[in-house]
């Protein structure tokens, strides 16, 4: 039987588009109010803020994140190739802007190791192209020995104008000029993606691609920090293969290692790792995480300052960090043109990490976020701070987990964290002058534990899905051995190729009947299935389109042990020879064989089925080639007196077959060609003569 399809109401797309345009372009006070409140979600939730219930958790988590932010911001400045003050600016402005525009209550937006690495790679490349020496560290301005004078003696360098490469702009101001231009363009990309609703791009970054990218980038980050750990001066490698080249240079210069830095690094890593492991083990008993990074930085700074490690042992230190804010400046347009291509992967990675974390915690705590608004929020977290000498930001998993574990309820906690950073910016920054760079490198490396632990998950990942494991390995290897941007692109392309290959060569099977039931399954996968006499049931587990047409036909001919084209050719050849010999009156062939013996050679076997049922339940769509392929097998098997029956077709496939003329012009034979279950098709085939 044929089910009657519902009559589809024709949609006037022109009217729908015009109606949407009228609604979009109209401006009423209520609509303007809704637009402003949607663009600044804080206006919706802040008036409803339950102070008694939320304030303690928000203040506590804000203070803890602020304490963590300060050492991380100073440390990640090494990754970005910039001075620590710019990392502090970034952390401050990002928290304030996301408080106003973000829809997630829990994510911590600010400086992030992977984003800092991507910014640093662009900055290093442009500095090299501009003729600056990447290893030319500015000598510390000692002044009269006081920390305050140290900071004042270096403030003039921050007020230089950025006007391309000239005598007035040194290495530092050109580096931050590149970083702000890159950040501005990345933010513009994100806002444009929000306007045109291109958030679906994130769907092409699978979990395997993101994990592989993060792990590969973590290896690059670790490699870049080793020289600070052991206190050697080696050229900062750029371009493809940076990881391998850096390790070669490290081993070549290992004899120049600074013993003071090596000892300091060893102590710091032992303390940090031990504290992290204890924190993980007893996290349910601790009300808030131990501020280990801050304690290590304070102790290390005091030891370095009073032990004069820089003067006595030549240990590299952070140097002067000025207080206050630098006057805002518009990013240079000609620098934007130089980094426009680099900003695209930066924008995508920043957005994807932010939205994925927002969705994860929104699901966990049962509230909704708006992905498009998140794109606007992270976009403006890049655009606005770029005027204030900041660089690109993103949500960070580690800090977000800390926020939720310390009682965070809303983004008020982000404002508290920003106030802690502001306190450092206004008063405490100069105190970090004597902080050794090897201590910062230790903080960065220990923070990579989560990403590097992904190597332990490879066996379990391989057990679950081999293809996803291969995607992870390829993405990780490309990100580490080539470059982070190329690694991300390779991961996306390779994961798509894996999907294409899986549809090009999908599983195919002949089905047998489960005894005493009307169900059918793969004969090779299950025991005790009975074959249906005179009927072959073929399953193809993928869409049928131009890329897998040949595989479909080859699999069908192989499993049924019959190629209708070859069989038809054999029969024609036999008939032709038979006619020739009958005309001559000779009943023996040229080979001395009788006609019957010739038949055995030309038609070696009898066809053991009279109906072919194609299970279309796994065929999600057909293109023109797919429809023509089914029409082709229908015709070829019909020439051999074998009927082809289709079962379990979805409405989309049926419509494609109708439009392609598979059922004829008037669809009169449709009831004898299309069935809603395999069993119905089998019963129909058995009833045929």
From TrEMBL:
<feature type="transmembrane region" description="Helical">
    <location>
        <begin position="212"/>
        <end position="230"/>
    </location>
</feature>
<dbReference type="InterPro" id="IPR002645">
    <property type="entry name" value="STAS_dom"/>
</dbReference>
<keyword id="KW-0597">Phosphoprotein</keyword>
<dbReference type="GO" id="GO:0008271">
    <property type="term" value="F:secondary active sulfate transmembrane transporter activity"/>
</dbReference>
<feature type="transmembrane region" description="Helical">
    <location>
        <begin position="173"/>
        <end position="192"/>
    </location>
</feature>
<comment type="similarity">
    <text>Belongs to the SLC26A/SulP transporter (TC 2.A.53) family.</text>
</comment>
<feature type="transmembrane region" description="Helical">
    <location>
        <begin position="335"/>
        <end position="355"/>
    </location>
</feature>
<feature type="domain" description="STAS">
    <location>
        <begin position="525"/>
        <end position="685"/>
    </location>
</feature>
<feature type="transmembrane region" description="Helical">
    <location>
        <begin position="54"/>
        <end position="76"/>
    </location>
</feature>
<keyword id="KW-0812">Transmembrane</keyword>
<feature type="transmembrane region" description="Helical">
    <location>
        <begin position="376"/>
        <end position="398"/>
    </location>
</feature>
<keyword id="KW-0813">Transport</keyword>
<dbReference type="InterPro" id="IPR001902">
    <property type="entry name" value="SLC26A/SulP_fam"/>
</dbReference>
<dbReference type="Pfam" id="PF01740">
    <property type="entry name" value="STAS"/>
</dbReference>
<keyword id="KW-1133">Transmembrane helix</keyword>
<feature type="transmembrane region" description="Helical">
    <location>
        <begin position="96"/>
        <end position="119"/>
    </location>
</feature>
<keyword id="KW-0325">Glycoprotein</keyword>
<keyword id="KW-1003">Cell membrane</keyword>
<protein>
    <recommendedName>
        <fullName>Sulfate transporter</fullName>
    </recommendedName>
</protein>
<dbReference type="InterPro" id="IPR018045">
    <property type="entry name" value="S04_transporter_CS"/>
</dbReference>
<dbReference type="GO" id="GO:0016324">
    <property type="term" value="C:apical plasma membrane"/>
</dbReference>
<dbReference type="InterPro" id="IPR011547">
    <property type="entry name" value="SLC26A/SulP_dom"/>
</dbReference>
<dbReference type="Pfam" id="PF00916">
    <property type="entry name" value="Sulfate_transp"/>
</dbReference>
<feature type="transmembrane region" description="Helical">
    <location>
        <begin position="472"/>
        <end position="501"/>
    </location>
</feature>
<keyword id="KW-0472">Membrane</keyword>
<feature type="transmembrane region" description="Helical">
    <location>
        <begin position="410"/>
        <end position="428"/>
    </location>
</feature>
<dbReference type="InterPro" id="IPR036513">
    <property type="entry name" value="STAS_dom_sf"/>
</dbReference>
